[in-house]
Structure formats: structure tokens, C-alpha cells
Design a protein that fits this description.
The protein has three helices and two strands. The chain is mainly alpha-helical. It is globular and about 40 Å long.
Length: 91
């Protein structure tokens, strides 16, 4: 049976992640309060950010930047700002 969580991003009950995908306290918070659907949305944004800004994931600054973006997106309702990309609902 699927695990459900109250998703902070979607603001509703939704299917939770199968396991913790991110380390530490933040990972626990994501596991407890972010749905599979919201995580998939973040994964798309993360890929666009990495490509757009040519982030090197071996670089601690790049990882810190991505983590800040992830927190803002998942928990603070902020849209990820990707140059040259307009979310479909704003076109």
C-alpha cells in the first residue's frame, strides 16, 4: 500500500516517497512532507537549473545553491527562476 503524506508543496494529501532520497534532517523533512508528484516536479526544475547554470555537482557551492533552490521551491512556494524559461501557465 502506498504511503500518503500531507504534501507541503501541493498543500494536500498525496502519495509519499518510497524512501528518503536526500540525506540528513532536510531529507527526513522531505520524506515526511513532500509527495512523489512534488519531488518529480523538483527533479525537472533541478535538471533545468543544472543544465542552464552548468553546475558542477562535485562543487560544494553548486550543491549548496541547488539545496537553497530546492527548499524555496518545495517549502516556500517559490518558482525556480530559469533564464529563458516561462512556466506554461504564465505564457
Amino acid at each position: 500500500m502506498a504511503r500518503t503524506v500531507y504534501c507541503e508543496y501541493l498543500k494536500k494529501e498525496a502519495e509519499g516517497l518510497d524512501f528518503q532520497l536526500y540525506p540528513g534532517e532536510l531529507g527526513e523533512k522531505i520524506f515526511a512532507s513532500i509527495s512523489k508528484e512534488a519531488w518529480a516536479e523538483w527533479q525537472k526544475k533541478q535538471t533545468m537549473l543544472i543544465n542552464e547554470k552548468r553546475l558542477n555537482m562535485m562543487d560544494t557551492e553548486a550543491r549548496a545553491f541547488l539545496e537553497q533552490q530546492m527548499i524555496a521551491f518545495l517549502f516556500e512556494g517559490k518558482e525556480v527562476d530559469i533564464e529563458g524559461y516561462t512556466p506554461p501557465e504564465q505564457q
